[in-house]
Design goal:
Helices cover 35% and strands 25% of the residues. The chain is of the alpha/beta class. α14 runs antiparallel to α16.
Length: 511
């Protein structure tokens, strides 16, 4: 009897596999393979079952019209291969709309549904919404935007931080599609005047996906944004974040500090939570009490107590943080400092022996100091508690299959201001290919701006110095800006000059 420890996609008989439904094949589990010879069709079966799935094997023999040859393969390998086959074979949203006879028939079928909660004949809109979510995951999208206009509906995916138009569903499908999303998110389908927020937990191709739904009434109907969070994705560690050696050493030093505040700043979608999760992965969770308060909890971390903000019942960041401090924590992570109350509690916690990680929405590292003061925090409290501020952005990675080199131009050096740092004669640009969906980019990497609070900086903050004075001091202390850190990736051929300029602020240390 054959035994295989792993399978490649080339070994799977996709045609015969698709003769069955995915739930049927998962029951075994079994997976038809390409023949080793002409005598029989090999079928992968789990190597840990007590009783083989004889009924399924008999079905294979009858449907294939030949003998079957069981091949023992680890169960998780079979399930992963099944998910891959059915995921790759699923149609895109555009193909689904094209395969239907015409949009008028789709509209008529959906209009006849009535109440989606009671109807049993709602397959078209269910298939359309499910296909959109499935395609978004395959395309590595972080968000799905459904945008109604006067005569059309636009569906766009945010891929690697940039929106791409995917499909134009018929205008008549709009109401049913949004109602279906409301049903999935547990929202009120009758309420069309007020914004609503919900959450959907789904499983696609063996992946647990958390979908955050935001619905907003507009002039031409309700606008929907769905943020996709793949819970099965691996949590990155600090060495995997792409920091320079100096940045990595500074972050490791902060993680080992006994007390103080470490802030990670940047706009929404800049990877702040990923950085904080990576920092928590470095913490000695076996000997230290680590607790978080988040909105939402994006990933579960072993050995960390995680609390979800629930504003509907009064559990805000500030209220939750007070309760956490009564749990004798050593390290506290705050999803976001949004108001003075949360900021003051966090600072008091850091001054009483706790290490506090938190995020803040600012454009750069130095602006975080001014932002805390604008909230109403006294300068001497900021100076005594703050240890480090890290600003970050995400830039798109060049596709390795289609990137091409071009000579360095004089204006490139003038923009980046790093002549003395890198000796580079050429940079790279993305051309576009099938792998990267003709964008020239695939995936993203972070660029960082780390402000370590020196004694001179601490004194300047204590004295209430303004942003221009803080920038002069940071420049004197040779703080590496976002743009300068981006030059490191440009020199390595990881990203383009245009990408770094797109996300960074020009002349952040100039006065």
């Amino acid at each position: 009897m054959h035994k295989l420890a792993r399978l490649t996609h080339e070994q799977v008989d996709v045609g015969r596999t698709l003769l069955f439904s995915l739930p049927v094949l998962r029951q075994g589990p079994i997976l038809p393979l390409l023949p080793f010879d002409a005598l029989a069709c090999p079928v992968a079966v789990s190597d840990d079952v007590v009783v083989w799935p004889w009924e399924l094997l008999d079905d294979c023999r009858r449907i294939f019209g030949c003998e079957v040859q069981p091949v023992q393969v680890p169960k998780d390998v079979i399930l992963a291969s099944l998910n891959q086959v059915f995921d790759m074979s699923s149609a895109s949203a555009e193909q689904m709309l094209e395969n239907l006879s015409d949009s008028d028939e789709l509209s008529k079928e959906i209009e006849e549904i009535g109440d989606l909660l009671e109807s049993e004949d709602d397959a078209p809109v269910i298939r359309l919404v499910n296909t959109l979510i499935s395609q978004a995951l395959k395309d590595r999208a972080s968000d799905i935007h459904i945008e109604p206009f006067e005569s059309e509906v636009l569906v766009r995916f945010r891929i690697d931080g940039v929106l791409h138009t995917i499909v134009h569903p018929p205008k008549s499908v709009q109401a049913a599609m949004i109602s279906r999303i409301k049903v999935m998110g547990g929202l009120d389908i009758a309420e069309k005047r007020h914004p609503q927020d919900g959450r959907i937990r789904i499983r696609i191709a063996g992946r647990d996906v958390d979908v955050r739904v935001s619905i907003l009434p507009t002039a031409f109907g309700e606008r929907v944004v769905m943020r996709l969070l793949d819970r099965s994705a691996k949590i990155l560690t600090l060495p995997e974040l792409g920091m320079s050696d100096g940045q990595f050493s500074t972050m490791q030093e902060m993680v080992k500090s006994p007390h103080g505040i470490v802030l990670v700043t940047g706009p929404t979608g800049s990877g702040k939570s990923t950085t904080l999760y990576a920092a928590l992965m470095e913490v000695d969770r076996a000997n230290r009490n680590v607790m978080t308060i988040e909105d939402p909890i994006e990933y579960q971390i072993q050995g960390v107590g995680q609390m979800q903000v629930q504003n509907k019942i009064g559990l805000s960041f500030a209220a939750g943080l007070r309760s956490i401090l009564r749990q004798d924590p050593d390290i506290v992570m705050i999803g976001e400092i949004r108001d003075l109350e949360t900021a003051e509690i966090a600072i008091q916690a850091s001054l009483t022996g706790h290490l506090v990680f938190a995020t803040l929405h600012t454009n750069d590292a130095l602006s975080a100091i001014v932002r805390l003061q604008d909230m109403g925090v006294e300068p001497y409290l900021v100076a005594s508690s703050l240890m480090m501020v890290q600003a970050q952005r995400l830039v798109r990675r060049l596709c390795p299959d289609c990137k091409q080199a071009r000579p360095m131009r004089e204006e490139d050096w003038a923009v980046l201001e790093v002549q003395a740092t890198y000796d580079v004669s050429e940079v790279f640009e993305g051309i576009g290919c099938e792998l990267c969906m003709h964008t020239g980019f695939i995936g993203r990497i972070a660029i960082y701006e780390i402000l370590s609070i020196s004694e001179a900086m601490r004194n300047a903050i204590h004295d209430g110095k303004g942003l221009p004075a803080l920038r002069r001091l940071a420049k004197k202390e040779q703080m590496v800006t976002l743009r300068q850190d981006g030059a490191r990736h440009i020199a390595a051929g990881t990203t383009t000059i245009e990408e770094v300029l797109r996300v960074s602020t020009e002349g952040v240390l100039e006065v």
